[in-house]
Amino acid sequence: MSNAAALERETGTNFMPRYDAQGLVTGIAIDAHSKDVLMVAFMDAEAVARTRETGLAHFHSRSRGRLWLKGETSGHFLRVQDILVDCDQDALVMLVKPEGPACHTGARSCFYRKLAGDGLVPVEE
Amino acid sequence: MSNAAALERETGTNFMPRYDAQGLVTGIAIDAHSKDVLMVAFMDAEAVARTRETGLAHFHSRSRGRLWLKGETSGHFLRVQDILVDCDQDALVMLVKPEGPACHTGARSCFYRKLAGDGLVPVEE
C-alpha cells in the first residue's frame, strides 16, 4: 500500500475497508448501552454490505464458509446503532442493541470468563 | 476439533487459546475506566505469554512479522488489568490503563471515526 493510500485511509472521510488476504476485517459487537463487549467475529464485504443495508449485524462464518446473520436461528439479532472504524480500516466496532443473549451458550456476552492465575474464572456481572 | 474439546474450551476453567491457521487470536484493548475500545490487533502465543508475564499489552505485527510491544517506540504502553476470554477462546479482551494515546496517529483511540451515510465522520468525544 502506498503512503498516500495509507494516509487517505487514516485521515480521510471515505469508507474503504482494508480486507486481509482472506477478504476479512474484524467485527466487534459492543452493547451500546452498557458498553460491554458482546462478541467478536469476522466480516467480509458481503457481511459489511448486508449489515449496513439491514441494520442487523452480519458476519462471515469461517467454519461454515458463508454469510451469517447473527440471530438467524436463535432470533437473537444485534441491532446496529453505529459503526466505528479504526485508523487503518481493518476493524469495525458495532454499537448494538442485542435482542437476547449474544453468545450461543446462552450467556449475555461471549466474554463470560477472565484469566486468573493459570486458569479461567467467571466474570462477575 | 472434537465436540468434547469444544465443550471443554467453552465451559472449562483451562486457558487454551484457539490460534488460527496463522497462529493468531484477536486482541482487543479496552480502556478499563471509560470502557472505550482503544485498538484491535492480533496476538500469537508469544504475544499472549509476554503480555501475561509483563502486564503490558503485546501483539504480533503481521506487517512486520514480529512481536510488538505496544508503546515500544512511543512510550504509550497499555497496562493490562484484566484479560477476558470468549467462548471459543479465539479472542481476548484486555482491560487496560493507557499511558498515552493508543493510536499511532496520536488519537486517544484508533476508533476516531464512524460511518455516516456513505462516508466517515469524527466520533464525538
Give your account of this protein's structure:
Two copies of one chain form a homodimer. Chain A is an alpha+beta fold and 125 residues long. The first copy, chain A, has a single domain, classed as Ubiquitin-like (UB roll) (Roll). In chain A, 15% of the residues lie in helices and 37% in strands. Chain A contains two helices and eight strands. In chain A, the strands form three sheets. In chain A, strands 2-1-6-5 form a four-stranded mixed beta sheet. In chain A, strands 3-4 form a two-stranded antiparallel sheet. The first copy, chain A, is globular, with a radius of gyration of 16 Å. The A-B interface holds A 10-15, 26, 28, 30, 35-37, 39-40, 52, 82-88, 91, 93, 103-105, 107, 110-115, 118-121, 123 and B 10-15, 26, 28, 30, 35-37, 39-40, 52, 82-88, 91, 93, 103-105, 107, 110-115, 118-121, 123.
Strand order within the widest beta sheet of chain A: 2-1-6-5
What number of structural domains do the residues of chain A give? Answer: 1
Q: If interface size is counted as residues with C-beta under 8 Å from the partner's C-beta, which chains form the largest one?
A: A-B, 39 and 39 residues
Rg from alpha-carbon coordinates of chain A: 16 Å
Distance between the termini of chain A: 43 Å
> Helix share of residues of chain A?
10-25%
So how many helices of chain A?
2
State the CATH topology of chain A: Ubiquitin-like (UB roll)
Instruction: Assess the beta-strand content of chain A as a share of residues.
Output: 35-45%
User: H/E series of chain A, N to C?
Assistant: HEEHEEEEEE
Give the assembly state of these chains. Answer: homodimer
Instruction: Calculate the mean pLDDT score of chain A and round it.
Output: 95
Structural class of chain A comes to alpha+beta
Number of strands of chain A: 8
Q: If classified by CATH, what would the architecture of chain A be?
A: Roll
